[in-house]
Design goal:
This protein is of the alpha+beta class and 402 residues long. The chain is built from 14 helices and 11 strands. It has 3 domains: 64 residues, no CATH class; 107 residues, Tyrosine recombinase, N-terminal domain (DNA polymerase, domain 1, Orthogonal Bundle), CATH 1.10.150; 173 residues, hpI Integrase, Chain A (Orthogonal Bundle). Helix 2 crosses helix 5, helix 6 packs antiparallel against helix 7 and helix 12 packs across helix 13. It starts with a strand and ends in a 6-residue tail after the last helix.
């Protein structure tokens, strides 16, 4: 005789000696009850399996009723990441961030674990995925599957952020009990030595920009520390000639749809910066040479619209080679501006504002090596000052003969 388990499902012993559990899971297209069966060797084992099966069924049913956008209550990572990107990312986060997340899943994550149900993805699986990318993620020969070198730690950390954000939303929606990526441990990112140009190197570099017909562009950069996307997005209406200021309120970048203009990422990046009298004169001269009605401060001579940031990088390296100065990134010109400003005695808070940093503490930490050197110079200067005062006092002491 079948035994009911607390009103949910029934147990019975079969003729072959095994125990059978069953419970209803709805009705079929003919209106007849659909039944799920569980088999086990003992009554206790069968009861446990039946209870677990009923709980799983009710969980899946609750998800299906609550998350109507799901076609599968136990989605694979590929299925869930597509939902997450379209429903929780696109139009909500920055377009560039959305594109990066989508690329990470398409390129790195889904080809490896995309077919796994998200409920079965464990911390060790995530750990192995990310460490594989780090140690030998690049394929030399895709046809033979030969492993190549690994991706940079920065890339791997960005992939981790995308995967963790995706599965965190799955946890929030109670599709999984916990986010497995939270337990992943990656090597610490070693801070690279900051590269900047010395004053003598900046002079040689700027002299070469004159010959390359881009002196105004780089003079403005070196005296303001603007981000590449910010300086490329500048329009003449952003320049206030009377107050000698520039309004920074947009940035340009390349997206899959071409050049895209957007507002800066943080409120602190929207700022008004001062420029020198010499810089203002250079910009006024540049404007006078441009056709009347030119909107952009630095338009591309090829398209007449925004420069592609990559073309600026290529040109920068050519100028550096001709000038005989170390090859650095465009962003390192920003570091050069900050470093020279600190060495000239500008306070950190002002520099932080000019750079568009959210927190002056971040600026301090970034350029700690410069402030440490300045502290040593101040200490040495004070030491010499006090030593000289001591010597002066000793000279004033009247010594009587014995």
């Amino acid at each position: 005789m079948a035994k009911r388990q607390n009103g949910k499902g029934t147990l019975r012993k079969r003729g072959d000696g095994r125990w059978e559990g069953r419970f209803n899971i709805g009705v079929n297209e003919n209106g007849k009850p659909k039944v799920k069966y569980i088999l086990a060797k003992t009554q206790a084992e069968c009861a446990r399996k039946l209870k677990a099966a009923i709980e799983e069924y009710e969980h899946d049913k609750e998800i299906a009723e609550r998350c109507t956008f799901l076609t599968n209550p136990n989605p694979t990572l590929s299925e869930w990441s597509a939902i997450w990107l379209s429903s929780y990312c696109k139009g909500i986060i920055r377009e560039s961030t959305y594109e990066n997340y989508a690329y990470f899943f398409e390129r790195y994550i889904n080809p490896r674990i995309g077919e796994m149900e998200i409920r079965n993805i464990s911390t060790i699986i995530c750990q192995q995925l990310l460490m594989e990318l780090y140690t030998h993620g690049r394929l030399i020969d895709t046809s033979q599957g030969k492993a190549g070198t690994g991706y940079s730690l920065k890339t791997v950390k960005n992939v981790k952020i995308a995967l963790q954000s995706c599965l965190q939303k799955a946890e929030d929606e109670e599709l999984i009990s916990r986010n497995p990526v939270k337990g992943v441990k990656l090597p610490k990112l070693q801070k690279k030595e900051m590269k900047t140009l010395k004053v003598s190197e900046l002079s040689a570099f700027l002299n070469e920009t004159i010959r390359s017909d881009c002196y105004e562009f780089y003079f403005l950069e070196i005296t303001t520390g603007l981000r590449l996307g910010e300086i490329l997005a500048l329009e003449w209406e952003d320049l206030d000639e009377e107050n000698k200021t520039i309004q920074v309120n947009k940035q340009v970048r390349r997206s899959k749809n071409g050049m895209e203009v957007s507002t800066p990422k943080t409120q602190a990046s929207i700022r008004t910066i001062s420029i020198s009298t010499e810089c203002l004169a250079l910009l006024k001269g540049l404007k006078a040479k441009q056709p009347v009605g030119t909107k952009l401060m630095f338009p591309s001579p090829v398209t007449g619209t925004y420069y592609d940031p990559k073309s600026i990088t290529y040109r920068l390296h050519r100028i550096q080679r001709r000038a005989g100065v170390p090859q650095i990134r465009f962003h390192d010109l920003r570091h050069s501006f900050a470093t020279l400003s600190i060495e000239q005695g500008m306070d950190i808070k002002t520099i932080s504002h000019l750079l568009g940093h959210t927190d002056a503490g971040f600026t301090m930490n970034t350029y700690m090596h410069v402030t440490d050197s300045m502290q040593q110079n101040v200490a040495d200067t004070m030491g010499e000052l006090l030593k000289s005062k001591k010597d002066e006092n000793e000279e004033k002491i009247i010594k009587f003969p014995a």
